[in-house]
Amino acid sequence: MKRLIKEEKFEKDNIPYVRKYFGTDEDNITGILEAPDNESEKEYVKKPSTNNIALSQIILTQQELIIKQNEHEKVLYDLLSRQ
C-alpha cells in the first residue's frame, strides 16, 4: 500500500510549493507530487490596506470624472462646430 513517505516545502518563482513522495517505504519511492502549497499560500495573499482601498476609490472616481468631462467636451465641440 502506498503512503506518504516524505514532504518538502520550497519556493518556485516566489510561490510556495510542496513536494510529496509516496511509496511503500523510503527506499521504494513510487510517486512524486509537486503542487502549490495552499497552506503557505495564505500567508502570501494579503488583504489590501484601508489606504490602498481609499486610493483605488479615488482613482475610480477620477476616471469617471474624466469620462464625463470628455463627453461634455464632445457635446460642446458639436455645438460650436454648428455655428
Explain this structure.
This protein has 83 residues and is of the alpha+beta class. The chain has two domains: 1-45, no CATH class; 47-83. It is built from two helices and three strands, in the order βββαα. It has a three-stranded antiparallel β-sheet with strand order 1-2-3, with helices on one face. A hairpin with a 2-residue loop joins strand 1 and strand 2 (15-25).
Largest sheet: 3 strands, antiparallel
Tally of discrete structural domains: 2
Helix amount: 40-55%
What characteristic shape results from the CA principal axes? rod-shaped
Low-confidence stretches: none
Write down the secondary-structure element order: EEEHH
Radius of gyration: 28 Å
- List the quaternary state of the chains: single chain
Span of the ends, CA to CA:
88 Å
Number of strands: 3
What is the helix tally?
2
Strand order, biggest sheet? Answer: 1-2-3
The SS-based structural class is alpha+beta
**Residue-averaged pLDDT:** 86
Strand content: 35-45%
Task: Give short descriptive properties of this protein.
single chain; alpha+beta; three-stranded antiparallel β-sheet; 3 strands; 36% strand; rod-shaped
Question: Could you give a quick summary of the protein structure above?
Answer:
By secondary structure, the protein is of the alpha+beta class.
Question: How are the elements arranged and paired?
Answer:
Elements: E1 3-12, E2 15-25, E3 28-36, H1 38-44, H2 50-81
Antiparallel strand pairs: 1-2, 2-3
